[in-house]
Every structure is written in C-alpha cells, then in structure tokens.
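Let's practice the habit of predicting before peeking. Look at the sequence and jot down your guess about where helices and strands might fall. Then scroll down.
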Amino acid sequence: MTMEMNLEPIQDSWLSIGEACRILGVSEATLRQWTDDGQIKVFITPGGHRRYQRSQLDEFMVSRRKTLGIQDLVAKLEETAEPHREVAVNITASLSDGIRLNQRLRSHLASLGKSILELIIQYVSSPVDRKITVQQAQEIGKDFGITMSEAGLTLTESIEAFICHRKPTVEGVMAMMKQKEIIAEEILAALPLIDDIMDRTMVAMVEAHQNHTKA
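Done guessing? Here is the structure:
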C-alpha cells in the first residue's frame, strides 16, 4: 500500500527502507513485496523516497509472531522423553567406586523419570486438584529415594541422579522461553507450578532415602 504525504516532524519515528529492513530482518525486495501486497504501509516523500513508521513496523512484527500456548509447552516437554530415558543409562558415570546399577534398576529409574514428565504434562495440559498432583509427585520422589538407597547410592549421588532427570525438563522449558514468539500468560503461570512439582518430588526423595538408610 503506497500513499503520498508530507511527513510531520516528531509524531512518529520515520525510517528509510534500509532501516526498516534491518528492523524486520528482511531484504528490500521482501519489504517491497509486502508493501505491494498491502501488508505494510509505505509513505512517499515529496522527493520520492520511501518512509516507514516505526510503530506500524512494530505492529506488523507482533501480528506475524506466533503466540505459544500450553499445547506448545506440552510438545516441548514431550521432546524431553528420550533424554529422560538416556539419564538412567548414563547415570553410573557419577557413582561411587564399585556401585553399578543393574538393568532392572536402570529401567525402574527410567520409568520414574518418565512418570515425573507425564505428571507435569498432565498437570499443565489439564490441571487437576493441586493437592492430588503434589501427592503424586511425592510418591514418585519416595519411590526414587528408596530405589537409590537400595542400590547403595549415597544421598548426594541420589540428588545428583535426580538433578540429571530434572535437567531435560528445565532445558526444554528454557529453550521455549528463549524463542522470539509471544509467550501466553498460561505458560508463564505454569512455569512456577512445574518448578514446585520438581522441588516437592526431590524433597520427598531425600526424606525417603534418609529414612530407608536408617532402617
């Protein structure tokens, strides 16, 4: 869309086509095409130069950005399933000398990591009573702590193992937050809940490990 007008000073930031392209991150050819398609207004000065309003460019960029919602968060969390499975396989690298997890324990730890992930996905996609979610998280943590204690791992090693399971989830969420798309408020509201579930799971794990070791 093209129109001629006299530019009034200071009412808005007026940009040359080169400046507008740098802000939008596109070539002049692309910007001209968007202009021809009527997606962006261009103002022609009496001297025939193209000028763009910064405010309109900002509005255009917002309109083209995708808004990330809960389903996008769920998809990102689901992508961490494979790293969760790998954690149980690689965890022996940080264990004390002489301690090795057999296949049964590795499989069980992998299933616990999967259970934590599924609990988080279930909670953010279709929230249920928060008290029930916390109880489920604590049961997973308790199982994790007892399993690690039975395997002969120290509390420190058990915490390190849990952190390894937690890491893929945290990294997945952080990767989403670094994207340029707009983050919906429902995602921002879900983040502290995810963190709380992980924290409560770890606290339950520590308590169960200590109690089982003393028994």
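How did you do? Residues 2-64 form a domain with the Multidrug-efflux Transporter Regulator; Chain: A; Domain 2 fold (CATH 1.10.1660.10).
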